[in-house]
Batch of 3 targets.
Target 1
Amino acid sequence: MPFFDWLKITPLSSITPIHARLEPNWADWRRVRKVLVPDHVYSWLCETGSLTARVKAACGNRCFEVRLLQQGWGRPLYSEGRVLKMRRGESAVVREVELLCDGIPWVFARTLIPASSLRGPVRRLTLLGCKPLGAVLFADPMVERGPMQIAHLSPRHPLFCSAAARLERVPLDIWGRRTVYFLAGHPLLVNELFLPDIPERIR
């Protein structure tokens, strides 16, 4: 199947540009006061290694799974477009997944790959299916990691709504982080939101 035809299978019609006031305030993780963040969530937020590897370790002998929720062409949220330095009107491949342990979602992840980044080795990232993106990024020596930002999300934020849409109990808030990665010089953005059932991290 041709590359761009495959991407059209699951268009994200619900992803539309919105004003910045409907988004959380993203801040450098080193500037976020630890006292404001639940202890067990803070340890996940500040993880500098592969989050996928840490989730698998915490899951232990239970069933770890990556569930692909949707993938296709979409518009970035306002702050996503800004941090990726996307051109006005530029689309991106948007991939949303959950990381689960024994069928319980622990992490919601939303990745954006701008159309201008879909060159060379970046194209293979659109063909992962249910394979974890983190394992690919951390295994590739060509990948460079940008600064990590943290945010506190409430139900009024569209990213919160996407993360909580399939939860049995909608939480009062969610903490998340985002990082820009560069593969062969081309940027992509990974948002990672920690859901209520995320446990204490183990090494």
Note: Residues 51-59 form the longest helix (9 residues).
Target 2
Amino acid sequence: MDWNPPPKPASYAENLLVKSILEGRFPAGTSLPAERELALMLGVTRTTLREALQRLARDGWLDIQQGKPTRIKDYLQEGNLAVLGAIVAQRENLPADFVDNLLYVRLLLAPSYTRLAVERAHIRVSEVLSAYTDLEDTPAAFAAADWQLHHQLCILSGNPVFTLILNGFSAFYQVMAERYFAAPQARQISKSFYLDLLAAAQRADGAAAYAIAERVMRLSIELWQRASQS
């Protein structure tokens, strides 16, 4: 039987607070209500609230100092990767230009891990890409395949930090990828990308793999921005 247990009270309070911060109910630079009032607002005990607040302080959302009101930090400047993961989980409250900024980060990272993967494990990269020559022409199929490819490239790069960063965006990546691949042009660009990258991997040509990945990452940004503006 499939069932999802309800979130633990501290996780529930933590998620509500993150949602409230992202929605602007508790803007950066302001202070949270007093502990007793906030616990009542969230419907949790003060003990549970303290646990949630400590988690959020650890991740860079809050500044807690003894004897002072709890301050909401500028999380985009003072947060860490945990903040990034929490923002991704709140897809309905993404900051402006968040997806564009993520795509620019991918532009910086993807060519590097692609080159490393080809240089370290070109045979395995070729094996992975050989299965991409006959993908079902649907957004869901391309979204799943694209995620698997980048995940494998990160692993094969030999640098686990690439994989950890990518894993933080797993669910978000695939949801946004389905939107991206809804455009036939996006699927066609990726078909060419997979074939070109396969050829570079078969030659063990890391420099070509870097150039191919960089070109396609730039094209994907342009295509996403055009689609977002239409």
Note: The chain has eleven helices and two strands.
Target 3
Amino acid sequence: MSPRLSRRQRRRQALEERLRSRDLAGLRQLAAEDPNVLSGLVGLLNERDDLLRWRAIEALGLLCAERVGQGEDSMATVRDLVRRQLWSMNDESGNVAWHAAEALGEILHRVPPLADEFAHILLQHLEMPIFRAGVLWAVGRLASARPELFREQAAELSPYLEDPDPLVRAHAAWALGELGSEVAPPKGTLFYDFDSGELR
């Protein structure tokens, strides 16, 4: 007889099932029933399965935007989540969230008032090599809708086109392209396609 799963394990299992099938309606239903679903998605940001992790990032942005639409207290909840993810990117936190930058980029993309508040704080993490590719992806994601947020910083991004990490170079090229520069990401780089829900 298999041991009973804890509430957290059951939540993770339910999230993984819906993420693997990209069941966005099912994720909304879970979020309506369980206030800890956002925390559960945050727990998947270090998932080694790239597609599952990107779908968790997508769901986190979507559900945060929908949570914000429920009132001012809900905005405070999402703002607190953003602050905690920024804190997790600091060495002092003791629990580095490797893909927090991408999650923050998606949340700020979906919740524009928070982008005004936090986008440039996120940009400061470009100095940390472990977050560089993720921050550049976040810049590109935000710039795809609001290029004015980072237009003055475009020149600061150009040196990353020569970075030794190919993912950093690819995300820098994409971000600069979204900011109006004629730079194409190198071929062979996988990006998450929010239309299809697949890596391309």
Note: The first strand starts at residue 192 and ends at 193.
